[in-house]
Amino acid sequence: MAKIPKEAAKRHNQALDLVKSDKRLSLDDRLFILENFHEGATNMNGLAGAFFTPEGLARDLSIEVAECDSIIDLCAGIGRLSFACMHSAKRIVCVEQNPEYAEVGRRVMPEAEWIVSDVFSIGDVGRFSWAISNPPFGAIKTGSVFEGSYSGAKFEYKVIELASRIADWGTFIVPQTSAPFRYSGRQTYSVEIDKECQKFIEQTGIELGMNCGIDTSTYLDEWKGVSPMCEIVICEFGKDEELEAAVPVIAESQLSLFDAA
Q1: Residue 55, phi then psi, degrees to nearest 5
Q2: With the CA atoms of 173, 176, 180 and 184 taken in that order, what torsion angle do they form, in degrees rounded to the nearest 10?
Q3: Over the stretch 196-226, which tens digit does the pLDDT of each residue have?
């Protein structure tokens, strides 16, 4: 368990009280949980590379998700991205392997279907219009064997390749060095592709496109315990004419519901 400031711990416990309560949560209650549930209070999230998305960054990501039939949120945490995108899809499925996070997420996003599983063990979940994710960053061990074309160690690339098999489009938060461009925190946009990114692109054929101009450095001080420089990347995995017309920016180049009881 990580040590967090006394006031943050107090708000975290208040958020847990709402999660455990029998009351029907208001929108304000759900926002309070999202803002104050601290992922490091009972979990060694740093070791897992898992940190929850700041509210503003989640809202900015939602700009790059068009209205569609269905969204799958991979590595959903407590549902911050899904909450930001809730009006974009008729159906949302959240995949999260941590049962505690999933319990909180079901209270934050009761509209969603929750799958408590490692993302690489979800089996046949069908096809979705869109995949979204703020996956753990870096060389994180997977809970099961990853089967894909990408042979490297970066977890975020593995999640994107998984998404390419189950969704037509994808919007992802990745470390800046994992994107093929640099924009956030810079004066100008530039194309920069390191060896690992080049390997991912060559091995999978997936192009990681630029967003509409979102500078994620705005939210550097709003992460809990870290300040990662990130980029939002957009991927077109499959052809869907209706979605293609609705997308704000074109990229450049088994089901087991969580039982809270």
Answers
A1: -55, -50
A2: 90
A3: 999 999 999 999 999 999 999 999 999 877 8
